[in-house]
Amino acid sequence: MVVAAAVLHAHFFLEAPGARFRWDSYEYLASARNLAAGNGFRDLHGAVEARRTPGYPLVVAAFLKAGLGITALVFAQHVAAVLLALLVYALTLRLAGDRLSALAAGLFVGIDAGQVYMANHVMTETAMSVLLIALIAALARFAHRQSMAPLIVGGLLLAVSVMVRPAAIYLWIPLAVWVLLIADRKRVLAASVFALCAVSLPALWMWRNYERAGVPAVSAIVGEDLYYWRAAGAVAMQRTGFEFHPLPFNGEEEFRRQFFHIQQHDFVRNAQAFHARVLGSRAPVATQAELSELDGRIARKILLSHMQGAILMSINGALHLIFDAMWEYPNALYGGLTRNALDVLFFVNSVAAFFLMAVGFRRLLRVDAAVASLIAVTLIYFVVVLSGPEHEQWRYRVPLIPVAAILVGCSFLRVSSSTQAHTT
């Protein structure tokens, strides 16, 4: 398992040295360079950074400050991804008490193309993968030991996760309900302690953004994303009607055509007019945080008036998140028939993994209902929050792979071994 993971990660690291940066990478790197230089958390233009959260740039800054550079960072991410497979193996073995299940779970993570590809980039996916599986491990320990220490650790891990990926900002709500339901005693106290720990860092960062950028949000990019992606997607979906074709295969051309026309033409023009009307002469010099906040106002109105389109778009996004092939991996390494064959293989893998997860959930439910429900709540939350019209839904799936792997592994759980399950 570890050898297979190490070989795949080493192969990609050596064969794709040019695959280090994606769109968001340059913003993370700019903030990290400012942090390393002692200039504070600032963006590429030297302005106060409120669009990105500081979790991942701090990691990058540590490597830059030590003089190690981007290659060393990427190498460390590959090592972390390989070790992640071992961690998933150990956690699944603890939960299910079955070596075959643990091996399947660890292997599923170790050879996952998304994990390999994203570890090679200056992106948050590897860090978020580690944080999420650590969160599951801490809360699983609480479920079995009913002590406050793992609950506090879990809450703080979730707080750090939000600082890496703001999409986790509301995860504390369903997880606090989960704690309330599975705690043996002092349920309200346990849920409150977890919630307070989970919101601690995000609350402080919201205050910082309000003081420095005038936006009371963990990330000022929220309004921008809501407008140019979710609202534009809802309008496009309502115009074209629902259809689904997994990517990278052909299909949904009319929806994509409508979406990009609306996003890049109609919405840009409408946003500029709204900014000018609200801000007046300040519009040309307004910060990205201010403009994003205004975009969010428009987006909420559009989503409310296009509720059907928003629902259909979310369903479409969820299907893409679950079933799309991870096409960037073969694109980076191969061409022609090999690339096409891997696209098909990765799509089949996504479909098979979904059904294995369903079987694994049912079997883990018989062994450890508390942890099975914990994993289900976490996965469902991210699918609901992340599902949208973005072209690369597979990327949002990457940090969920280690958590989903536990269920995939438990699909191999033998009924006779269920009574031998260990507790953490």
Would you mind describing this structure in some detail?
It is a single chain. This protein has 424 residues and is mainly alpha-helical. The chain has one domain (2-420). Helices cover 74% and strands 0% of the residues. It is globular, with a radius of gyration of 22 Å. Residues 417-424 have low confidence and may be disordered.
Features:
424 residues, mainly alpha, 19 helices, disordered C terminus
List the helices and strands and how they pair.
Blueprint: H1 2-15, H2 25-36, H3 55-65, H4 69-96, H5 99-110, H6 113-119, H7 125-145, H8 148-164, H9 172-182, H10 187-213, H11 221-240, H12 253-279, H13 288-305, H14 307-323, H15 328-333, H16 336-367, H17 369-386, H18 393-397, H19 401-410
Helix pairs in contact: 1-4, 1-5, 2-3, 4-5, 4-7, 4-19, 5-19, 7-8, 7-17, 8-10, 9-10, 9-17, 11-12, 11-13, 11-14, 16-17, 16-19, 17-19
Write a brief structural summary:
The protein has helices spanning 2-15, 25-36, 55-65, 69-96, 99-110, 113-119, 125-145, 148-164, 172-182, 187-213, 221-240, 253-279, 288-305, 307-323, 328-333, 336-367, 369-386, 393-397, 401-410.
Helix/strand order, N-terminal first: HHHHHHHHHHHHHHHHHHH
Q: Please give the domain count.
A: 1
By DSSP, the count of extended strands is 0
Could you tell me the mean pLDDT?
93
| Rg from Cα | 22 Å
Q: Look at the helices and sheets and give the structural class.
A: mainly alpha
Query: What's the helical proportion of residues?
Result: over 70%
List the uncertain runs: 417-424
- Straight-line distance between termini: 23 Å
Largest sheet: none
Proportion of residues in extended strands: under 5%
SS element count, helices? 19
Overall geometry comes to globular
